[in-house]
Amino acid sequence: MQETQVLGGLRSEIGILIRQAGLVVTALGLADGTAAQEAIVGAMAACGDRTLFPVDLPSGPALGIVLSHEVTQVAMVRPVDTQVTLVDFVAAVPFAFDILEQVLNDPYTALTVADHEGTMRYISPVHEKFLGLPHGGAIGRPAEEAIPNSRLRAVIQSGKAEIGQPQMLANGVTRVVNRRPVWKDGQVIGAVGQVMFRDTQAVTEMAGEINQLRSQVEFYRRELDSLRETREATADLVGESQAMQRLRNEIARVAKLDLPVLVLGESGTGKELVARAIHRLGRPDQAMVSMNLAALPASLVESELFGHVAGAFTGSARQGRAGKLEMAHDGTLFLDEVGDIPPEIQIKLLRVLEDHVIERLGSHTARRATFRLVAATHRNIDELIRTGTFRHDLYYRISGITLQVPPLRQRLEDIPSLVSHFVQAFCLRNGWPVPAIEPGVTRYLADQSWPGNLRQLRHRVEEALVFSGQGLLTLKAFMRNDATRSEHPTDTQPQTPPQRPPPSQESGTARLKDMERMAALRAVQECGGNKQRAAQQLGISRSYLYKLLA
């Protein structure tokens, strides 16, 4: 480093270079010497129209500022540490000077600076104007004298920052400020003050906005958790048809409500799956107790429902036994085939649903029981009520909400997903590798009548898997008994299926619709059940695809 000396009042750790019309006319301090002048002139040329520039002098790295007026340029340089971030900033940003100028003049980024003794060294012009100080009027004065209630000296002494602190000024105005110590070589060499907010009201408003944003985030988090929970709870309800999407949405809406649910649908449609989904969403931490009322003789239904004490009847358990109603306390009671409940039991069940009190057979002790009731039937309840087989007041008690499970014939577009689901479940259960599915299988299955719905489809898939062998689920395996197969209609379908008119009577429009529908089914299968991709592949809208598949 050059020895420090005074050159016309200029300390030699600073260099000044003056050029006129491209020629150096004056070079003082660090700018003295041919090598230094060439380095400064080269750096000025490289920086273009930038005001700040880095330069490598013979004595080491430096930072310079250049001012221009017509043909005259005045540059001032001073040495800096090679690790100073400011050098990188100035070297990388062409408008670095403009940024610094804006920072120092903005009321929320402008600075007040005090040295290690608490003496003011700089106040931004915007702050001078606010404090009623002349330009440069605070420099050299103690911080607390220049700025009312200033704590810059306290920050210098403690070395600890003060963030978001209110500061009362002389004119009664409050500002929220930050005060930070400036460290160098392990010592506090000064402190910087900066305004954060106009007043404490601004902080309150920001806190309110933050709380509102947090509430919104929490709301969307709960919505996302609910969607994830719904998807997991209804995972067994396979299919993306409109009918199944509607059913899943209805389940999600009613599952958490304290209302009884009646699930209607043909045999084999998956009514128990609906009941389990309602339970998982509504009372997942409690027990779900199921009872099929059509699977027991009438003489046993009462004891199974209500339980009994020891010796209540011949053959009763020695210690007595709790009934399904009692076992479902705080959980879910699923009564399958509720349309088959004996008439003499209906009145007792009605009283339990009204009073939430149970008496075991042979006992006069009332037991409190609360549960969520989900009932299901494939029977025509309206017809049962009309014939007096089912009490209308019991119907109203069990049908707070009614859900309808669609038959398979109304959701044929779900067949690819259902087949894949049944194949994977069978192979997992039996330790088989999952086979590929022959392309014609889905089209063949979509043409069947399916009176037994999902139960029948699963049986057919599992049978075909056995006779296809491993590796490929073949169409031949599905068709092996077609000549002798009899589709047994359920009691929810007409005994005689509607007759299709002979080919000679079918119109060209009808044949075209059949062809369109088969093309839609084939596209859905090829796209792995993805309706959106299938619609794009066919060049039609998703809504029209659903119309073709209906």
Q: Note the main sheet.
A: 5 strands, antiparallel
Strand content: 15-25%
Q: How are strands sequenced across the largest beta sheet?
A: 4-3-7-6-5
Please name the CATH architecture of the largest domain.
3-Layer(aba) Sandwich
Radius of gyration: 43 Å
Mind telling me the CATH class of the largest domain?
Alpha Beta
Topology, number of strands: 23
- Dominant shape: elongated
Question: Please, what is the average pLDDT?
Answer: 82
- End-to-end Cα distance: 89 Å
The residue ranges in which pLDDT falls below 50 over 5 or more consecutive positions are: 1-11, 489-507
In percent, how helical is the residue content?
Answer: 40-55%
- The CATH topology of the largest domain is Rossmann fold
Structural category is alpha+beta
How would you describe what is shown here?
The chain has 550 residues and is of the alpha+beta class. The protein folds into four domains: 6-101, Beta-Lactamase; 106-198, 2-Layer Sandwich (Beta-Lactamase); 255-406, 3-Layer(aba) Sandwich (Rossmann fold), CATH 3.40.50.300; 409-487 and 506-549, Orthogonal Bundle (Helicase, Ruva Protein, domain 3). Helices cover 41% and strands 21% of the residues. The protein is built from 21 helices and 23 strands. The chain has a five-stranded antiparallel beta sheet with strand order 4-3-7-6-5. A five-stranded antiparallel beta sheet has the order 9-8-12-11-10. Helix 12 packs across helix 14 (392-398), helix 19 packs across helix 20 (531-538) and helix 20 crosses helix 21. Residues 1-11 and 489-507 have low confidence and may be disordered.
